[in-house]
Amino acid sequence: MSDNSAIEWTEATWNPVTGCTRISAGCANCYIERTMPFRVERRRFDGPQIGATTGVRLHPDRLGMPVRWRRPRRVFVNSLSDLFHASVPDEFIAEVFAVMAATPRHTFQLLTKRHGRMRALLCDDEFRKLVQEEFATLAHEGVDVGDANPWQTWPLRNVWLGVSCEDQQRADLRVPALLDTPAWIRWVSCEPLLGPIDLERADSVAFCDGGLDWVVAGGESGPGYRPVDLAWVRALRDQCTGSVHTKFLFKQVGGSTPKAGGRLLDGRIHDEMPGAGGGDADA
Known about the structure:
Helix content is 27%, strand content 14%. It has 283 residues and is of the alpha/beta class. The protein has one domain (12-252). Helix 3 crosses helix 5 and helix 4 runs parallel beside helix 6 (168-179). The longest helix has 16 residues, at 125-140. The protein is globular.
């Protein structure tokens, strides 16, 4: 949990869930076990293989954190987990969405590798009813929800839904699912980028109006990092440049540390973002 995140594309992190399970190649060198909370608790993956897990823990006591943050900010949700992990109950996910609905001053950035569950829940009217019930509970408990109403603002305008795609195989699976999911802002994080990705191949409408709004790319960092080929990054940048209103951000070249390779691509920093959920544009 941090209100001053070092991640280039966000300002704060909010972790009502911690812990995860390796699901694809991009998880091989997952950074979460190197973070201070995991090191202090000595939480580690129970193996290097796909399916290895740290265990997943829910933290209900953290749900109210964004309510207490008065200054608007961009918030990365579950930087130490995946909200749509199978071990997270539907009801708890609904509570997270209710808090996001109750705090429209913030912009919430979600990333998942569990594209199927994300799509299934957010297309389900029963899940939306769960969110409405949790929202009503917040209002009953005295949370100032203002004029917010999940029924009238679904999908939530202040929630950016994204999928992580480390290579073409995962992009072909996850991007179409994202495009089928109700969302105000849709984005893709290609980090760690482990191979070339043609997002137009992943889905023919990925770069049309109503498709992707933002692409983030980055190389891997940390022990045993797999080097990124900048040609792969350039290809993603050029896809965004040639598309309709698709912003591009290059997070890092990567290396032994996150800052090792810097952020320059062909002599410049690419730092674009979509407009914030509340309508304030970020250039």
